[in-house]
Write a structure and sequence with these properties.
With 181 residues, this protein is mainly α. It is 69% helix and 0% strand. Helix 4 crosses helix 5 and helix 5 crosses helix 8. The longest helix has 30 residues. The N and C termini lie far apart (57 Å).
């Protein structure tokens, strides 16, 4: 997207990004698992079910910090572009972060990791936090582009570990259907 923004302008890049996001959403929603999966019935009498459990509320608050960091990175990228008079940085810095995230996903997916999901989440969150620390030194454009990939490496590890609480107990398999005759 950074190259596209440089070649065709930021407005076109935003439209292309939105279209790709919409297309990806449609692809996920039309897959058989998305169409057939139904959540297990809640055994609580209220409508909130497990969403207001103390553990999930704490997890959601913690993940808000991750979201804040990602949102702040986008503002920082625009500021870096203005400060260094390099428009490319407004797209290049988020692209480097995303590249780090992609590489982190490849590394994470290549093997089974030891430890509990809670331990993996804590380790990933600490790595994500530590990855931002070099950027506090306000590096120049080239160093910042390389450094912003580091927290991206850990973002992809946070997502599966953080989703564990509500995916740990999958719904029971559907009863086999009997065909007449």
């Amino acid at each position: 997207m950074a190259a596209h923004a440089s070649a065709h302008g930021p407005a076109t890049a935003i439209v292309v990004t939105a279209a790709l996001g919409l297309f990806s959403t449609v692809v996920v929603l039309t897959t058989p698992p998305s169409r057939t999966w139904r959540p297990a019935p809640a055994d609580h009498g209220d409508a909130t079910g497990r969403l207001l459990s103390a553990g999930l509320v704490l997890l959601f608050v913690a993940l808000a910090g991750v979201c804040f960091a990602i949102g702040g990175m986008n503002v920082w990228a625009v500021t870096m572009a203005d400060k260094h008079e390099m428009d490319l940085l407004s797209g290049l810095l988020p692209a480097a972060f995303s590249t780090g995230s992609f590489l982190g996903g490849l590394i994470y997916g290549r093997r089974t990791w030891p430890g509990s999901n809670a331990g993996q989440l804590l380790d990933s969150a600490l790595g994500f936090l530590a990855g931002w620390l070099p950027l506090l030194a306000l590096p120049g454009p080239y160093a910042a582009t390389a450094a912003v990939a580091v927290p991206g490496l850990f973002l992809t590890l946070i997502v599966p570990a953080a989703s564990w609480p509500w995916t740990a107990s999958p719904p029971p398999p559907a009863a086999p259907r009997r065909t007449p005759g």
